[in-house]
Amino acid sequence: MENTEWIAPCHFGLESVLKREIQDLGYEIVQVDDGRVTFRGGTDAMCRANIFLRTAERILLKAGSFQAETFDELFERTKELPWEIYIPRDGKFWVTKAASVKSRLFSPSDIQSIVKKAMVERLKRKYHMEWFPETGASYPVRVFLKKDIVTIGIDTTGVSLHKRGYRPAAGKAPIAENLAAALIMLTPWKKDRILVDPFCGSGTFPIEAAMIAANIAPGMNRSFTAEAWSNLIGKKGWYEAINEAQDMMNDRVETDIQGYDIDGDVIRTARKNAEGAGVDHLIHFQQRPVKELNHPKKYGFIITNPPYGERLEEKSALPGIYGEFGEAFRRLETWSAYMITSYEDAERYFGRRADKNRKIYNGMIRTYFYQFQGPKPPRHNKNKRENSGEQE
């Protein structure tokens, strides 16, 4: 399995961030599609991608891809795939999800049923069995159809990669951990720069920033479905990836990361979540309304997820919230601000047009990542940091 293709789904609009992450791990990009990136590598790629990637949703072993315009074609082409290479005699297998875009086959339930039947027929012939106990490891299958091209993958992850394990308790409408990480990585923020989230909620932005600063791999404290795939990979591969992650971690890094929220209960939850992530000592949380947003230092970053209106606040309250946010930001003359929101009048009440914005789908909600860019630090400040061994 040294030349296997792996599929990493992600949020729509953030494929470029995930592509860069995969390349940084040293793997070859095969293809970039809407909402997913395909790359090539051995079984080490499966382990390292699950443990190290911050922006992916899961890692799929690509079983095959083909064109199918009828259910007969779907059945026959699926049956041609070498399922016996991946699924042992006692393996538990099912089609956990099917999705179709601009294809003649569009019924998820029918697609799931036919793919499962085709897999059974293939394995019956190869294993000379009429019935499968399915008492062994799990091999959940996912199917994507786009313009009649079928792509089938086996899920190595299980619970989505955004579930880092540190956020059992979350505030209302929390932003997903992998989405927060991707948005941070879209900005020029680095670990030696100030970062403040004035609507921190359960603390996701500050926690993800602290994990990036400390180089803590997001998947090092959770389990994965493929850990039980002894027919494809031994425990050694997982141990090596975890050891690599532990060697790279530096939780003694100096940071200036802060999270504010008007709700004291929410701040207590954020602190608890930060403790679970092992970064509570790197973040300062404080109960504070957005109108009191201030900081004595210059050239800081605001990265935040303000109320949208659909789930958190009445629409009538949003102009005041965004107005106070914009007024506070104007006092921070050298700062940059980045906010994700679906509120259509965000710029109007914030009081400034964004220098850039990026359309991103947060689940089924179309949102925009507004970027209000401040001035860069003077060159002499940069040189001073470099001389002291710090990085820009």
SSE blueprint:
Elements: E1 4-9, H1 15-24, E2 28-33, E3 36-41, H2 43-52, E4 60-67, H3 71-79, H4 83-86, E5 92-101, H5 108-127, E6 138-146, E7 149-155, H6 177-186, E8 195-197, H7 204-213, H8 235-248, E9 257-261, H9 264-277, E10 283-287, E11 301-304, H10 318-331, E12 336-341, H11 346-350, E13 356-362, E14 365-372, H12 379-387
Parallel strand pairs: 5-6, 8-9, 8-11, 9-10, 11-12
Antiparallel strand pairs: 1-3, 1-4, 2-3, 4-7, 6-7, 12-14, 13-14
List its traits.
392 residues; alpha/beta; VC0802-like; Rossmann fold; seven-stranded mixed sheet; 33% helix; disordered C terminus
Radius of gyration: 23 Å
What order do the strands of the largest sheet run in, or round the barrel if closed? 2-3-1-4-7-6-5
Number of domain units? 2
For the record, the CATH class of the largest domain is Alpha Beta
CATH architecture of the largest domain: 3-Layer(aba) Sandwich
Spans of at least 5 consecutive residues whose pLDDT stays below 50 are 386-392
- Spell out the CATH superfamily of the largest domain: Vaccinia Virus protein VP39
Query: End-to-end distance, in Å?
Result: 40 Å
For the sheet with most strands, the description reads: 7 strands, mixed
Could you give the order of the helices and strands?
EHEEHEHHEHEEHEHHEHEEHEHEEH
* Shape annotation: elongated
**Quick check: average pLDDT?**
94
CATH overall fold name of the largest domain: Rossmann fold
Question: Helix share of residues?
Answer: 25-40%
Give a written overview of the molecule.
This protein has 392 residues and is an alpha/beta fold. The protein has two domains: 4-155, 2-Layer Sandwich (VC0802-like), CATH 3.30.2130; 177-216 and 226-387, Rossmann fold (3-Layer(aba) Sandwich). 33% of the residues lie in helices and 23% in strands. The protein contains twelve helices and 14 strands. It has helices spanning 15-24, 43-52, 71-79, 83-86, 108-127, 177-186, 204-213, 235-248, 264-277, 318-331, 346-350, 379-387; strands at residues 4-9, 28-33, 36-41, 60-67, 92-101, 138-146, 149-155, 195-197, 257-261, 283-287, 301-304, 336-341, 356-362, 365-372. A seven-stranded mixed sheet has the order 2-3-1-4-7-6-5. The two termini are 40 Å apart. Mean pLDDT is 94; it is low at 386-392.
